Every structure is written in C-alpha cells, then in structure tokens.
Amino acid sequence: MLPRFGFGLAVSLVALAALALYGGCYAEGAAGDRCNPLRSSDECNSGLHCSGNPIGISVAYPIPYCPENYCCPDPVTASDNPNCQPGCNGGAAAICAAASTDTEACDYAACLADASDPSTCPVPSDASTSSDAEATDTSTTASEAGADVVSSPEASPEASTSPEAAAVDGSTQD
Amino acid sequence: MPPQVGPPEEAASEPFAFGDFTWLNGANRQHSSMLDSPLFTGSVLLDVNYTESKAHPIDNTVVGSTALSRNQEITLAFMGFGGDLHYKNARLRILMQYGLRAELVPRNDYSSFRGQFDLQDSLRYISEAYGGYHWDAMHGINFDAGIFMSYVGLFSYDNFENWMYLASYTSDNTPWFFNGFRLQLFPSDKFKFEPWLINGWQTYGVFNEMPGFGYQLLWRPVEQLALISNGYLGWDNQDAPGQWRFHSDDSALLRYYQDRTNHIFSKAALSVTFDIGGEQGDGVTVFGGQIQPQSMAGKYTCNTQNVSANNRPCDANFVSWMAYNRFWFFDDILAFTFGGGMMHNPSRYLVLDPSGQASPIPQPTSIQGVQYVPATTPYWTAPGSTFDAWDYEFGFQYMPVEQVTYDLEFNHRQASVPYFNGHGGVTSPDGYITTSIPTGWRPDLIKGDTRIIGALLVRF
Question: Is B30 contained in some domain?
C-alpha cells in the first residue's frame, strides 16, 4: 500500500508542478495583444499601455475608431502593430457594420479600404470617443430591448448561415 | 417407456463476454460493478477538470470543445447518477447529468429553436434515458426507445472511459446522443448490428419532415481487435428539407502487446478512426462546389444550379481522422497516451460554434437574468465557408484503483481561420457579461489553442 501511495503522491506532485509551471507561461501583453481596460493595473508589457476604446485605464490612451483594447506604445508610430493604428485593423469597419449611422466611422473604414497609404485618411480630433459614445448598455439591464433583438430575424440561425451576411473586417475574419 | 430426453439446450453465449475488452478506448475499464444487484445496477459518475490556456482569456471561457468549458477554474464538468433496472426481460436505463456538460452539449442542438416548449431545459439534465425489452433470440435482441448514447466518434461521452480527456475533432464534433429508437441484434457473440430511427444528428427535435436513420456495426473477432462502423443519413438544417446529410465513422482498435508477467510495461494498444460525410441539395454539394473566404461574403451565392463560378452549389463535407496510441505501465496503474487528428469541414456544419459575442445563434439569458447582447460580428458559418483544423496531444492517466482516474495532458489545436478564444475573450471588454459592449466590439478569436488539462474522474 505504501509504495502505491508514494507513487500516487509523486504523480500528484508532478501534475501540480506542471499546472503551476504552465500557468505562469502566459504569452499576452505584447504590442497588439488584447488587454482588459477595466483591470486595476495595466497588464501590458513594459513600455506599453492598454489602449483603444476609451474606458477604464484606456481613457488616457485612446485609439480612434477602435472598439476593442490592445497593448500599444505611446506615442504610436506608423510602423507599430496594426491593432494600434487608427481603426485598429478592422475596428472602424466593425463599428460601421454594427452602426451604419456612424458616418464618420464608415467614411474612415471606406477610406482605409481604398487608400494605399492609411495615413492619408483623416482622423477627426474627437474620433477617439466615437465607439464609446455608442456603447450598448443592454447587457447590464436584462432588458426587453435585448430580448427584442435576440428574437429578430437578423439574429436567427438562418441568417447566420447565409452567405449574403455582411462581411466584417476583423478578428473573426478568415 | 420413459419419454426420450434430448441433450439440454445450451443458452446462447453473452455477446462480447468471451474476452476482456477493458483496454478499449471508449469502453469501461472496470471489470465489475460495485453497485450491482439482481434488479438494479447503479452508476455514479464524477468528472472535475481544470485547464490552463496559453492565451489566458479574460472571460475564462473555452471555445470549441464539448469537454472543456471554463479556463483557469476548477470545473464540475459532469456529475451523473442513475443505473440500470432489469427484471426478467424488461430493461430501463436512466443516467441524469449535472455540471457544465449539461450546458455544453445541448447548446449545439438548434432543432430546439423549432416550435414551443423548451426542449433544452426539459432534457438537458438527462444523459441517458431509455427503456425496452430483451429477447433471448440469437445471442440477444434488444429494442429500446428514448435518449441513448451515440457511438459516432469512438470516444465515450463518459470521459472515464477514454484514453484522453479532450478528444480530437472527429469525436468532439460528432454526436454524443441520439433521441429515438434502436434495435440491437447479436447474431453471434462477436458481432452486433444496431439500426437507429432517431430525430436527428444529436438533436432533441426534428429539423424538417424526415427523421434520421443510422446504424452501428461492431465486430470483435478476438480480444485484441475491435472494428466499429457507424453510419447516418438525415436532414439536419433549418428550412432545408431537400438538403440531406450522410456520415460514415469507422474505427479500428488493436491491442498489439500484452504481457501480464511484465509488471513494468504491461500493455500497448492503438486506435484509428476515419470519418467522411457530406451534405447534398438546397444549394450545397458534397464535393466539387465552391469554397469561399469570409471576405467574399455577399459576393457569392450557393445556388442549386451551376450558374457561374460564384453562383453555384457550395462545398459541404466532413473529412477527418484521429489516431491514438496508449502504453500501460505498472500493472495498468499508469498509462501514457499520445495522438491527434485533422478535420476538413467546408460550410462548417459540424464546427462547434463559438459562444458569447462570437456566437452565430441567439444566446440565452444568463442565470442571473442578464440578457446577452446580440453579437454584431459573430463567427461566420455560412455555406461555402472554409474550415480546416488539426491537433495533437499527449498525457498521463494514473489509475490507482478501477474507480478513480487522475488525468494530466497537454493539447494543441490549430485552425485555418480564427476560431479559438484569445486573451480578449468572447464576452466583453473585461470578460464579464454585465459589462457594456462597445459598438462594433469584436470577440478575440485566434487560430491556435495550447493548453494543459488536469482532471479527476470517479466512477462507481
């Protein structure tokens, strides 16, 4: 019995050590990686800041027309990660797809799609607040509004399997 | 003159009782049940896991699995209890299920969106529930009705029976249960033929006008070899009564080494599984159709007719394989398994849809009453879409007694398109469903998923 117990203890220790070692091997925090702007501390690597949609700690580091948050340097140069550039690599198009009335985001997305040099696309000075201003708040209310949207035809499985569904540049793109 | 008495009639031998098949992947390794009695054989199962993803998603969510659900959390994946009632030739099996798998598996059944009365809420806590009758003909005939386990994909729904905790796509993306009738015919003690009449491909309900049909052929000619073939034909897409699905799932298992006198290296076995399937009709075709990237969405049509390059049937097929090898050590107390597989599934009809803001289907209200915000950039599952993936894994299982398994394994999965959960998660900017979602916010889907898994499995 004792050898079997000892063997089991050894296996358990190896398992715990493996989990602990692996648990410390997170790879996020580099430039262009996603980050949590609402954390009490910045999770980005040294010299980078959680930037993008201006909420939480990202308020100080907004990226125009960007609905998400990424680890980025400050200031950002044209050679930095695409996720750190205005429109954050498809963010403007995603905002436009979600809210086609946001003409500024749609114009900017169209400009990015057509321009050979993205820096030629003008960024209005107040663009950084664009996506935040229209943030949906139905998630906090369990409201009837959310239920209505869920039952709409656009949200049905049928719609999702249609090849006519609008393409959106972004992280879910093939 | 006394009546002439012939030789006593021999009872037909029990199927598959001629050998010890506890080595099989997807079969119970216990030699006997501790909760057995003449009328009732009880079953109690517990499955607790812990997994760490290299991406460390901020919403602690796993995408693309029916075995894993939460990252960085100790998770009660499955707690089942029930058993078999058997009296004379009547039989009844009930196994309830609680834990995350009661959510993970039913969520992939979209037939429950048809009509009224919530099929998912009604049935999600039932893992198996079927009853029937046994005839003492041939080597046995059973006829059952209810919810029963699917054999497609080799691995068992009960992870205690599997060589690895996280199965490759061929198993993870194929059905775990069926709802309907089944007939089990045992013409010999080495062979079973089992046809099914079921509602559909892992569905509680029926999608169109026709039920699904399937079968299993199981042949174990000797103790060292098992051959399994499963087949399916059904109509499993919403509003597409002319679109039929077929699937063939074939496995071979071989125990190529066993030496009971060797107390260090006692056994070795392998399993190989190959699947092929497809969908035909209503705009899709099994092979030879068009396959398009998401950037082509809105610029092509899956047409029944062959009109042009971008206006013709779309490819919808499933081709996959997986292979595993297992070594047993120290009188079967420790086992090491390695393996992996690949999957090709244009039109993504068997891809497990991501959840949260990547879900292409409506999400339910959370248990706390919070309404999920409909996704604005859901995962793309249109006919003609592309999906290729592969994985490899290895791990140890420590089995101090027949009732307990400790599992530790490493797994890497890779897909041709962003699919797995990245650090940003699929829920909201900070990973909580109560946090507002900015307009246009995109879930963080990535192409690779590397993780380590630990699990404790107990079965009585």
Answer: no
